[in-house]
Amino acid sequence: MTRARDLADLGSGITSGDLADDSITTAKIADANVNESKLQVSNAPVNGYALTAQSGNTGGMTWAEMAAGGTTLISTTTVTSNVGSVAIALPTGYGAFELFLEGVAPSSTGVSSTLSVRFSSDNGSSYYQSSGSYNSSGSNAAQIPITAANDFNNEVYIALTIQGAKNSGVRTTVFSEQLLMTTTGEFRSAAVIGGGYNGDTVMTNILIFPLGGGLDISGGTFRLYGRAV
Amino acid sequence: MMSKKYVDGVLTYMTEEDIAQRDADNAAYAAEIAANGYKFERAAAYPSIEDQLDDIFHNGIDAWKANILAVKKAHPKPEGN
Question: A9, A70, A144, A156: which could form a disulfide with A5 (CB 3.0–4.6 Å)?
Fold first, then answer.
């Protein structure tokens, strides 16, 4: 009958030849005793890199830099009383932005009410927009319809995707997807429109304001997210 | 009562320039709607392309034209446009 013994008791009397292949099991390794150098990795480690499976490389593992990514909540603006506009800074360090408008309500509506978009408080005529069947240039990047009919319930959900705002080499564009809700609670009039600023200017902020119908935004939440470069 | 606005999450009063700009924007928009609003209204009122094709298939071109004409009449072009 054999008896397990501490290594210290064995002294130098045991060699690798005494051990059968595959005889070292997990239970025979003390906790916290496998470090990076004991792994068979195809390259040298670099701080911040992650271990990736690479079946074609020595040991099947390689240290690799992870691509920057992810989405960061930059700011939240909650409107609880009438305001004429909402301006939100577009900070540097992001390749694109997403602005989610939840439950945004104009102070009153008509059949032609819209939410409009400008950048950097520029109210000139350098903007263009398209709703698919209708294209125009003018003084804002997008006129997002917020009324489908007279029974509109002053509630709209919009997702804006803003690209190129921090890049001096391209135009700034905005895509809008919106969904309206009626007084009876049914969803209505989903639509996608697009537009942009016809110049390579770096934008500092985005401005949302109503046109037609009421002059104010009476409620809703504006959440700006940034996507890493 | 002075109108307000949000700037980077801070509630503040609109300046006289802001209000003048808002009024100018709305006047320009009203003019745009007066001139071209019927296009938006017609676009929203037309049946989908799929429904129009179905209408033509089942009822013929004349019936389809009558339905389209009804939308046009319900949202007429402004005088002189």
Answer: A9
Structure tokens given for A41? 């990795």
Reported residue count of chain A is 229
Interface A–B counts its CB contacts (< 8 A) at 71
Q: Say what the pTM is.
A: 0.69
Phi-psi region of A120 (alpha: psi -120 to 50; beta: other; left: phi over 0): left
ipTM above threshold 0.90: no
Question: What residues of chain B lie within 8 A of the CB of A111, using their CB?
Answer: 41
User: pLDDT tens-digit profile of A24-51?
Assistant: 888 888 899 999 999 999 999 998 888 9
List the Cα angle A153/A155/A156 in 5-degree steps: 130
Q: Are strands A152-163 and A71-79 parallel, antiparallel or unpaired?
A: unpaired
| Contact between chains at B29 and A114 (C-beta distance less than 8 A) | yes
Ordered DSSP codes for A5-43: --HHHHTT---GGGS-TT---GGGS-TT---GGGS--SS
